Amino acid sequence: MENGNSTQEQKAGVSGAAQESAEDRDRLARLKAEQTRKLQALKLTRARICEQLARSSSDRYTQLLNSELEQIDSELTRLQ
Predict the structure, then answer these.
(1) In this structure, which long-range contacts are made by residues 32-37, counting pairs with CB atoms below 8 Å and at least 24 apart in sequence?
(2) Distance separating alpha carbons of residues 37 and 40, to the nearest angstrom
(3) How far is CA 34 from CA 26, 37, 41, 74, in A?
(4) Which residue ranges make up each domain of the chain?
(5) pTM value > 0.70
(6) For the segment 10-47, what is each residue's pLDDT rounded down to a tens digit?
(7) Could you please report the per-residue DSSP string of the chain?
């Protein structure tokens, strides 16, 4: 009788491990997708700021845009 219970416990353990592994893979996939979205958003924002810099005639606005560009570049470096 004990041998039968032991087998059931082993099967439950293997099933639980497989489920945890699948959950870990799903979690990692979600994290990777989130990081990809962040990178894309930062790249689009960087492109928009570069366009605004090209059109800017105000020194103060140009300075602000350059500051934002530096922040985005550092964030991109950190994420890549």
Answers:
(1) 35/79
(2) 5
(3) 12, 5, 11, 18
(4) 2-79
(5) no
(6) 655 666 667 788 899 999 999 999 999 999 999 999 99
(7) -HHHHHHHHHHHHHHHHHHHHHHHHHHHHHHHHHHHHHHHHHHHHHHHHHHHHHH---HHHHHHHHHHHHHHHHHHHHH-
